[in-house]
Amino acid sequence: MKSAVLDNWHQLLRDPSGRRIAERRKGLGKTMVIDKGMGLNAFTDFIQTAGPFVDIVKLGFGTAVLYDQDLLRKKLKLASDSNLVMMPGGTLLEVAIQQGAVASFLDRICSLGFTGVEISDGTIELDRIRRTSLIKECVSRGLIVVTEYGKKAAGSEIDPEELAFTAHCDWEAGAEMVAVEARESGINIGLFDEHGHCKESILEDVLGKVDQASRLIWEAPLKNQQAELLLQFGAGVHLGNIAPGEALSLEAMRRGLRADTFGFGQQSADPDYMI
Q: Mean pLDDT of residues grouped by 10 in the chain (275 residues)?
């Protein structure tokens, strides 16, 4: 019995705060990873290493159509077996809208085994009626819908009132979460300035105007951005556009197992924990 106990890490080393594991069971602190082209071996390694701490994998922009179909199906199967939502990037749907091929796009992703879809208008204009219609159509097909707010052009900023209106309408139409655009760079776009730091005044305005702000996913590809948002909201904040190789280190930050968020942990008074 003694050796069996010693084979496992102490619970307060795995989760110093004593809260993170319970939070994950409640769906808090979701992590969305952006996959820009991992091969099968790399994807398998990623799932084996970080899969238990990731919730959504997005095949970045329009990369999904460039995969060998057998490889893509294998990746989708691995994701499904690991309870990961897999979705193509929102830009691919934007191309489908522009090309008048939305029905074909949705038929194809459903037949391949995608379980989610991202609806965005980062590079096109999408009116409210069409956006709502797309959300409802995707939900009716059994897809988990994540919408995205914001434009992809450098210097694009968040309009808190517009975000609040968009998020409310998207959730009412059936979207599960709304991602706030930051691209894969996180520089000079959305919430972040030209140095990649959070614009605190905009963040405060968003929190003052958006109901259910806990349903927002903040795209935060840079480590300092992840730390800033974790310190602002706590471990339960949803973060997106995380590089596959950073998913495990992000989970360590969520648990107070990294210097940036060391204060998340708390020492128990239980003598059994004084090891």
A: 59 88 92 98 98 97 97 98 97 98 98 98 96 98 97 91 97 98 91 93 94 94 96 95 97 95 70 39
Residues in a beta bridge with 119: 147
Residue 6 maps to a domain = no
Instruction: Return the bridge partners of 59, or none.
Output: 35, 88
**What is the Cα–Cα distance from 180 to 26, expressed in whole angstroms?**
22
Residue 118 inside a domain? The answer is yes
Backbone phi and psi for residue 102, each to the nearest 5 degrees, phi listed first: -65, -45
What is the C-alpha separation between 126 and 230, in angstroms, rounded? 32
Cα 123–chain centre separation: 20
Name the residue range of residue 246's domain: 24-256
pLDDT score of 7? 64
**Domain total of the chain:** 1
Task: Report yes or no: 131 and 121 within 8 Å, Cβ to Cβ.
Answer: yes
- 125 phi and psi angles, rounded to 5 deg: -100, 130
Q: In DSSP terms, which residues pair with 56 in a beta bridge?
A: 32, 85
